[in-house]
Amino acid sequence: MYEIQDWQHVFKLDPAKEISDIDLERICESGTDAIFIGGSDNVTMENVLDLMSRVRRYPVPCVLEISNIESAIPGFDHYLIPSVLNSDNVHFHNGMLHEAIKQMGHMMDYDLFTMEGYVVLNPESKVAKLTRSNTDLNHDDIAAYADMIEQLYGLKAMYIEYSGTYGDVSMVKAAKERLIQTRLIYGGGIDSLQKAREMFEVADTIVVGNVIYTDIKSALQTVKVRG
């Protein structure tokens, strides 16, 4: 069983985007700790299955970050379930999870699932608009979410998502200072080793995504943050 506590660097692949076999091989054999598969839109069972089958050729852990029930298919090493806490739509808090358990709970191995306390902070991102997230937060807000996630919900992971832009390091640090056991995952705008190192100073796990499709060499450089 794969444990998120072991992950320092992760590449995130979007099933709705194209990646060549050569670039996928470089990503999967880069030394990253895991491959996340997930996206905000145009995520289907077909493109998730296709990408999973391609990643499966390599020994790296393959993890599905569930964005809709239709694309939640068996065969992954682990599953992450985002609960977007700063969304005003209960569907993105627990509604999707509740529906999934109703449909598939009888065949779910719960040891393979981890719920993430998700906080979306880029107001221009697709995920912020889709989930109707309140991104107008300050340091006290993010610290309170961190306390909520660890002290009250008891979740293993907090995910700060800036999706498409590089985030405010001080905001990430404000969350990290409140967490003791919960893993702090950061994603958004990491497109260089310098940014990877800077954010890795205040987060436990960094997620590198968009730069894979625009500058594969820079993406591969980010793996050097691993200890």
Automatic annotation (TrEMBL):
Q: Which reaction does it catalyse?
A: sn-glycerol 1-phosphate + all-trans-heptaprenyl diphosphate = 3-heptaprenyl-sn-glycero-1-phosphate + diphosphate
Q: Write out the residues that bind Mg(2+).
A: D14, S40
- Which keywords belong to this entry? Lipid biosynthesis, Lipid metabolism, Magnesium, Metal-binding, Phospholipid biosynthesis, Phospholipid metabolism, Transferase
GO MF annotation list = heptaprenylglyceryl phosphate synthase activity; magnesium ion binding
Task: Name its GO BP terms in alphabetical order.
Answer: glycerophospholipid biosynthetic process
What CDD domains does this protein's entry cite?
PcrB_like (cd02812)
Q: What is its EC number?
A: 2.5.1.n9
Its needed co-factors are: Mg(2+)
Q: In which pathway does this enzyme or protein participate?
A: Membrane lipid metabolism; glycerophospholipid metabolism
Identify the residues that bind sn-glycerol 1-phosphate: K12, Y159, I160, E161, Y162, S163, G164, G189, G209, N210
Protein family: Belongs to the GGGP/HepGP synthase family. Group I subfamily.
Q: State the protein's purpose.
A: Prenyltransferase that catalyzes in vivo the transfer of the heptaprenyl moiety of heptaprenyl pyrophosphate (HepPP; 35 carbon atoms) to the C3 hydroxyl of sn-glycerol-1-phosphate (G1P), producing heptaprenylglyceryl phosphate (HepGP). This reaction is an ether-bond-formation step in the biosynthesis of archaea-type G1P-based membrane lipids found in Bacillales.
Q: What is this protein called?
A: Heptaprenylglyceryl phosphate synthase
Q: Which organism is it from?
A: Macrococcoides goetzii
